UniProtKB/TrEMBL annotation:
The chain crosses the membrane at residues 20-39, 44-61, 67-93, 105-130, 150-175. The keyword Lyase does not apply. This is ECF transporter S component. It comes from the Bacteria. InterPro entries: ECF_trnsprt_substrate-spec. Pfam families: ECF_trnsprt.
Length: 180
């Protein structure tokens, strides 16, 4: 079921990435994080891998942006962070749930952490792999690449983290009750 949701989110415009003015807010991590809470970190990592592989394939076939053609063809950037979203958010939740921390708060924190992992790792890896090609790819000087990426993290990244913190418990709590 989660793989089907991820396929829909990655292929139908405006469902997995919501355009808001110049920003494109990615909400697919919410799906991965909810799955990792409900199904465990291993399954969350697998679903994150599915998302990453779809992202990687789309970079060649149907890129989501002009920059995707350059940066998302690198599987370390397109796949690895997505796997870690499911793995780390699931481990965080399942390791701390036994300490009787408020379940909704724990889910919210897992959502924030998972979303930030995606944003920070993707942008960090773009910087590491493509800082010397920044003028050719982004049409900005190498010195301006880091502030540019930090600007993305400060806008998209924070909005995505807040949305994940809000929506993960709203979705996961009822599904957790149904699962039981």
């Amino acid at each position: 079921m989660f793989i089907a949701i991820i396929l829909i989110q990655t292929t139908i415009p405006g469902i997995g990435n919501i355009p808001i003015g110049p920003l494109s807010i990615t909400i697919i991590p919410i799906t991965i994080i909810v799955a990792s809470i409900l199904l465990g970190s291993k399954n969350g990592a697998i679903l994150g891998g599915v998302w990453g592989i779809i992202t990687f394939i789309r970079a060649f076939w149907w890129p989501t942006s002009p920059l995707a053609v350059f940066v998302l063809i690198n599987p370390i950037i397109s796949v690895l962070p997505r796997i870690l979203v499911g793995l780390v958010s699931g481990l965080f939740y399942h390791k701390l749930v036994k300490y009787k921390i408020n379940n909704k708060l724990l889910m919210s924190l897992s959502g924030i952490i998972g979303s930030l992992i995606n944003t920070i790792l993707v942008l960090f890896l773009i910087y590491i792999f493509y800082k010397n090609d920044s003028f050719n790819i982004y049409h900005i000087n190498t010195n301006e690449l880091l502030p540019y990426l930090l600007g993305i993290a400060g806008t998209n990244g924070l909005i995505e983290a807040v949305l994940s913190g809000i929506f993960v418990p709203l979705i996961a709590v009822p599904l957790q009750k149904i699962k039981k």
